[in-house]
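Feature request, filed as a ticket because there's no other form

It would be nice if the structure record came with a short human-readable summary line next to the tokens. Right now we just get the raw output. Example of a typical job, pasted below so the devs can see what we mean:
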Amino acid sequence: MASATQWLELHLRALYVHDERGRMVERNALHRDPAPRFFLGRTVDGNRWRFRHDLPDDLATRLEALVADEPAPADLRTPPRHDARYREVLDAPAGEAWAGPAYRFPADLPPHGAGIVRLTPANAGLLRGADLEPWLEDIGKSEPLIAVVRGGRAVSVCGSVRITPEAHEAGVETSAAARGHGFAVAVVAAWAGAVRELGAEPLYSTSWENTASQSVARKLGLIPYASDYWLT
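Raw output as currently delivered:
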């Protein structure tokens, strides 16, 4: 079985496009937004970190000295020891920080039930006329893209929003009117199975504030392997 740091490396490669120095260039996503200036991934086996490609070398050196003293967390919810110092070096206010758990999937996935549909250009109409319509632009790009369909309409969607040959990261959304019925759990399970059929690892991450997303992870029996922290 891979170590937590090996899972974290898969996660990092899925999240960001890197340059030849191993620095982050941009987010590995449909919309290539800039990467954060500093990323720290912490696991019980050790930590991994990345800097954005345009971060001045003097700031990277100061951050490197701090992160080298960052202990591996006994509890992934524990904030980084040098949180305040990282912010100070980057002159980053509280609103520019993001933190949350990263999960891998167990060997056995739960059954996902009926109404599971693979979204394609031919059935794109399933997304129209509701709050999931923005996912139309993901058809053919966030493959596999899976929906739970009820009454002729998609009520929950999960797709690969970060893709490498080795791993896919999940993006999931449930229509506001359909929440609380287990649709997110079903669609994420179906998506994970489809990713494994491609020979890649499904991964799932969220923020500590997103309790609904963490509830999905818990119901699926997902296994936390890292805590993400970054400053934009």
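Something like this underneath would help us a lot:
The domain at 116-224 is CATH 3.40.630.30 (Aminopeptidase).
Residues 40 and 155 are 35 Å apart (CA to CA).
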